[in-house]
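Hi Y.,

Following your request, here is the sequence exactly as I used it, all 150 residues.
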Amino acid sequence: MQQEKLNPLLDLEVKIININEGKNEVIVTRCKKLYEYSIFIAKAHSFWKELGNLKEGIKAAIKYCQKHDILREFLKIHGREVLNMLYMEWNLEDAIAYAREESREDGRKEGREEVRIELAKKDKELADKDKELADIIAENARLRAQLELK
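Below is the corresponding structure, written out as tokens. Let me know if you'd prefer a different format.
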């Protein structure tokens, strides 16, 4: 049975806009919630760096924003959900970055091992050629000695 090819009912193009603090300010400042979200994310990063702990950094950003009337009502209602979502998302990003770095390091190790194997082969080839050359030099010396005797 042959399946009929379906045509999409909707084509969608999405433009991604960076709303991090200091980026695309014309767009961000047009919407108070978007602007406040931008501040919240910047504070979360800032507190994370300052405290050295992701979860505590997010908690501090939530408290800071509530105190300074930044997304206050939303964070009051959804603060725990925001904490869990950001913590999980950023931990996933860290895990992915760590896995990528491990893969790169594995690739480097593999590459170095391949180079070592190739160098060992070249060293053996050179040793064989050195032996051949030594044999040729010895043969030449023997032939010269014979010529001198004649």
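Residues 25-100 form one domain.

Thanks again,
Q.
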